[in-house]
Specification:
Elements: H1 5-12, H2 16-25, E1 32-33, E2 39-40, H3 43-57, H4 62-72, H5 80-112, H6 125-137
Antiparallel strand pairs: 1-2
Length: 157
């Protein structure tokens, strides 16, 4: 089976840019090239891309995936490093679940203080709480989610 980069993308749900990026990082092996310099992929590449995409869907970092891909390519290696990576990732996911729980609590507190009427923004509980959090950051070290900066970083893997 010979696939173009577009075919590989369609079969695995990856974009052409993502496939090229994974090749650049070494997660995907350099593809066979035709005399016209077009990339050609096969079943092994589908399996590898599916492996990587599943790992990304589970939230593994690219560095962790590089280690897992390397382990997957060496059949006679012990599974201990993979288990270590898995334990580390489970800990990371649990920490993020706790942070997300705290974010949800704060959002629910904000919602509780909101009336659903069309009020003036000066009385908007959400906007006022956001200002209070900013002021608290500059007065005291963070102790709860209401004063934590950069919570959007929780969503980047």
């Amino acid at each position: 089976m010979r696939l173009s980069i577009g075919d590989l993308g369609r079969r695995t749900g990856a974009t052409v840019q993502t496939i090229r990026y994974y090749e650049k990082l070494g997660l995907m092996p350099p593809p066979f090239r035709t005399p016209a310099n077009q990339r050609v992929y096969d079943e092994t590449d589908i399996q590898r891309m599916t492996f990587i995409r599943h790992g990304r869907a589970l939230g593994f970092s690219l560095q962790d995936l590089a280690e897992l891909v390397a382990l997957d390519m060496t059949a006679d290696t012990e599974c201990t490093p993979a288990h270590k990576t898995l334990r580390k990732h489970i800990k990371y996911v649990r920490q993020n679940i706790e942070r997300l729980r705290l974010i949800l609590q704060e959002l629910e507190r904000m919602k509780t203080g909101c009336s659903l009427r069309n009020e003036n923004v000066m009385s908007c509980n959400l906007l006022n709480r956001m200002h209070i959090a900013f002021q608290n950051i500059h007065k005291t070290p963070p102790t709860d989610i209401s004063v934590l900066p950069n919570v959007h970083s929780l969503f980047t893997l």
